[in-house]
Amino acid sequence: MPSCHRYSQAGRDCKRARRASANRVLTVLRAALNHAYREGNAKTDEAWRRVKPFNGTQAARVRYLSDEEARRLINACAPDFRAIVHAALLTGMRYGELSALQVKDVDITARIATVRHSKAGKPRTVILTDEATELLRQQMLGMSGGSLVLARADEQPWGKSHQHRPLRDACVHAAITPPISFHGLRHSFASRLAMRGVPMAVIAAALGNSEAICARHYAHLAPGYIADTVRLALGRLAEPTNSNLTQLRRSAV
């Protein structure tokens, strides 16, 4: 979990998340108290009416890298960290999923990787592009099935929070401002798909997320795709006419 230092972006995000959680609790509590008041179990509702929810708790717009920024970031990373950053940008996999990935989880022939323990609590399949397949193939040369594909230079696994400092340093060297979090690499993967018109259902499947979550994060990046889909689905309703009356097309009998 990222550091919650109050002056960092992660700290501001943590604070916003805590306040959003408090607002949700307040909503439920207020509903229960209002019910008690209506049922005559409370003399007044004045006390909780005075409590106001926190402002500014909406999540900030998703931060993602442009293709040029992504290339600069990859090149600025130390060699062992470069591989896991590159893999994140190519697959959208989470830090924990990548750091736990073993050789036996990758099928080079089928060009897929299996996440055995996902955030949703069930395995999922990750589609590998040609570039991602080649990256992982190079990483796995000479390794046995139980070896970690993306280990550190000392062959130890990347542990919890080990990614923060090298990623921060790489952002400085690559002039990535504001710096991006490792989870932002996952957003960058999804954003690249959205801006190329990939349907939200496909992006959701690639990430292992719900379509609703993906639409909330990435739909604004695909206005052209959304517009084209709406226009194609609806088609023409009536022919243009100079009359004030609109003549509807007759349906085929």
UniProtKB/TrEMBL annotation:
One of its GO terms (molecular function) is DNA binding. It comes from the Bacteria. Residues 60-231 form the Tyr recombinase domain. InterPro entries: DNA_brk_join_enz, Integrase-like_cat_sf, Integrase_catalytic, Tyrosine_recombinase_XerCD. The keyword Iron does not apply. Keywords: DNA integration, DNA recombination. One of its GO terms (biological process) is DNA recombination. PANTHER family: PHAGE INTEGRASE-RELATED, PROPHAGE INTEGRASE INTD-RELATED. This is Integrase. It comes from Acidisphaera rubrifaciens HS-AP3. The lineage of its organism: Bacteria, Pseudomonadati, Pseudomonadota, Alphaproteobacteria, Acetobacterales.
